[in-house]
Amino acid sequence: MNLKPIKPKKISDQVFEQIRELIFKGEFKPGKQILPERDLATTMQVSRTSVRSAINRLVTIGLLEHKQGQGTFVASPDSRRGNPLAVAMDTEDATLDDLLEVRLGYECNAAELAALRATEQDLLSMGKTLKEMEEDLSATDRISTEADAAFHMGIAFATKNPVIVHLMRNFYDFLFISIRKNLAHMYEDQNLLQDVMKQHNTIFECIKDRKSVEAGMAMRHHINFVQNYFRNR
Fold it and tell me: Is residue 38 part of a domain?
């Protein structure tokens, strides 16, 4: 038997995971500069070497990018390459409707599980992204793609299912791009955006009230609403 000693998780791995989650949850937004290594090390109470190692890994997988003389920034999903799903999407000429069908499969189940398992911190995080969306809509007549994607990712994290979280991490770029395309078309009709905002709030209220079946149905209604909008354009 080829058994190996169990080793404690490296500090740099923990830094990597924490920054990665902040990106997926919308705390570190695409295009925004992250804190300098020194500040991250101080805040997380780790060495700058551990922070540098984690950042280099995040750059390698495309979540962060270095800009000469400026610092380190969160990469836009548009600029990322190498995701196996991206290659499959390109070669198969997948459509926005195809993406929405996949989201139905993942996200309705995720909403049901989130209603059963979400912690208070999960609810605070989702509530924060909803507030961002509402403030953007009120101030600019638009909904932030970053906040919208973060809300959906927050639901995935709230499931506490590592397989769902892993799948949604790999699906994140397509979730982000899908949402941005959806919203870009809907900017033509403010009533549609108000409907979308109400749907997000309904999903959240069902999760917060621990109504599992209703949460899944609310998510299905939301994604079907978007599907029908594009199919009837």
Answer: yes
